[in-house]
């Protein structure tokens, strides 16, 4: 296993936050298609005017942006682009354009959902961008966000992680949710065969739509299973998972936006380890010799694990934003460890 990502001191945030990437880098679309340019007669009704007012309203509402786009200005831009049928680059180029009455009414409706209902912006638009790819999302699935995205975005990526271990041919994504990790891996590595597992039939329905949208139906197999239960006899070079890991006490205090997401995708018992422990116990049985388990647990649960198991034989991946919360461990290390 490559040491490229390992051993970074943790910071605590306690939730499944987006990485540190900020707003999506790819275009977002919605609303009216290819809107005509209008001459501005009132700067207050221009794109720029709407962005200023919308940003101010979002700030005043004291919302949480941690499972959204991180900043009220970015959410205002995203919602207005959606309402006007533009992408973000088009919106930037048309700051003086007039926002028409229908577009203004639509934008007002979007803002009311965000402010009054505390509905996350990605549920409002029905889409989320992850690792440069667009995914369909709704309240049946967690909004795509994972620090594992940083591994997938790295030029070496999963191959760098597997260096010195074994060839990467078959992968398992446990707790797949929307399917964003499984699909992104399949898109990055066109030879890779992926099994994507979730207990939630609702989540798998969303994942199926995303698998079809990204045309990876021949290489991403969706399986309804409680972790490894339905995978008897299967073996993988890599098991990748972003399971529920938020401790109950922390989940109870999360912002309203988090409580719009499926509880089963976030909350994981008193210490956040309700799924992590069985994954550690069972993963070796489903890994090929030299295979690797890559698991996200967040900062708080990392701290809990380090205190509970000082001899836990894992590498905490090193990220550029001064945090970890993701560990890698080989099949052989799991077999040799008797901490559970």
TrEMBL record:
<keyword id="KW-0689">Ribosomal protein</keyword>
<keyword id="KW-0808">Transferase</keyword>
<dbReference type="GO" id="GO:0003676">
    <property type="term" value="F:nucleic acid binding"/>
</dbReference>
<dbReference type="Pfam" id="PF17827">
    <property type="entry name" value="PrmC_N"/>
</dbReference>
<dbReference type="Pfam" id="PF05175">
    <property type="entry name" value="MTS"/>
</dbReference>
<dbReference type="InterPro" id="IPR004556">
    <property type="entry name" value="HemK-like"/>
</dbReference>
<dbReference type="InterPro" id="IPR029063">
    <property type="entry name" value="SAM-dependent_MTases_sf"/>
</dbReference>
<keyword id="KW-0489">Methyltransferase</keyword>
<feature type="domain" description="Release factor glutamine methyltransferase N-terminal">
    <location>
        <begin position="50"/>
        <end position="126"/>
    </location>
</feature>
<keyword id="KW-0687">Ribonucleoprotein</keyword>
<dbReference type="InterPro" id="IPR017127">
    <property type="entry name" value="Ribosome_uL3_MTase"/>
</dbReference>
<protein>
    <submittedName>
        <fullName>[LSU ribosomal protein L3P]-glutamine N5-methyltransferase</fullName>
        <ecNumber>2.1.1.-</ecNumber>
    </submittedName>
</protein>
<dbReference type="InterPro" id="IPR007848">
    <property type="entry name" value="Small_mtfrase_dom"/>
</dbReference>
<dbReference type="GO" id="GO:0036009">
    <property type="term" value="F:protein-glutamine N-methyltransferase activity"/>
</dbReference>
<dbReference type="InterPro" id="IPR040758">
    <property type="entry name" value="PrmC_N"/>
</dbReference>
<dbReference type="GO" id="GO:0032259">
    <property type="term" value="P:methylation"/>
</dbReference>
<keyword id="KW-0949">S-adenosyl-L-methionine</keyword>
<feature type="domain" description="Methyltransferase small">
    <location>
        <begin position="168"/>
        <end position="270"/>
    </location>
</feature>
<dbReference type="GO" id="GO:0005829">
    <property type="term" value="C:cytosol"/>
</dbReference>
<feature type="region of interest" description="Disordered">
    <location>
        <begin position="1"/>
        <end position="48"/>
    </location>
</feature>
<feature type="compositionally biased region" description="Basic and acidic residues">
    <location>
        <begin position="14"/>
        <end position="23"/>
    </location>
</feature>
<dbReference type="InterPro" id="IPR002052">
    <property type="entry name" value="DNA_methylase_N6_adenine_CS"/>
</dbReference>
<dbReference type="GO" id="GO:0005840">
    <property type="term" value="C:ribosome"/>
</dbReference>
């Amino acid at each position: 296993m490559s040491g490229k990502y390992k051993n970074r001191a943790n910071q605590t945030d306690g939730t499944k936050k987006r990485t540190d990437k900020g707003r999506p880098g790819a275009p977002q679309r919605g609303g009216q298609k290819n809107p005509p340019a209008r001459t501005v007669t009132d700067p207050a009704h221009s794109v720029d005017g709407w962005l200023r007012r919308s940003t101010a309203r979002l700030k005043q509402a004291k919302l949480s942006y941690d499972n959204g786009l991180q900043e009220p200005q970015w959410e205002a831009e995203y919602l207005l682009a959606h309402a006007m049928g533009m992408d973000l680059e088009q919106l930037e180029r048309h700051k003086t354009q007039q926002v028409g009455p229908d577009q203004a009414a639509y934008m007002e409706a979007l803002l009311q959902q965000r402010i009054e209902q505390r509905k996350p912006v990605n549920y409002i638009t029905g889409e989320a961008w992850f690792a440069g790819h667009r995914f369909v999302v709704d309240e049946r699935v967690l909004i795509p966000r994972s620090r594992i995205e940083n591994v997938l975005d790295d030029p070496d990526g999963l191959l760098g992680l597997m260096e010195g271990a074994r060839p990467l041919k078959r992968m398992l994504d446990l707790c797949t949710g929307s399917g964003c990790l499984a699909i992104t891996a399949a898109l990055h590595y066109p030879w890779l065969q992926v099994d994507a597992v979730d207990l939630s039939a609702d989540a798998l329905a969303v994942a199926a739509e995303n698998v079809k949208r990204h045309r990876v139906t021949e290489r991403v197999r969706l399986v309804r299973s409680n972790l490894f239960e339905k995978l008897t006899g299967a073996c993988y070079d890599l098991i990748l998972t972003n399971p529920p890991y938020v401790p109950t006490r922390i989940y109870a205090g999360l912002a309203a936006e988090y409580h719009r997401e499926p509880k089963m995708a976030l909350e994981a018992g008193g210490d956040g380890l309700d799924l992590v422990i069985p994954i550690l116990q069972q993963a070796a049985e489903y890994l090929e010799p030299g295979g690797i388990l890559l698991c996200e647990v967040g900062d708080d649960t990392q701290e809990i694990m380090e205190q509970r198991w000082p001899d836990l034989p894992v590498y905490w991946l090193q990220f550029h934003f001064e945090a970890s919360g993701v560990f890698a461990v080989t099949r052989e290390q799991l077999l040799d460890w008797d901490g559970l």
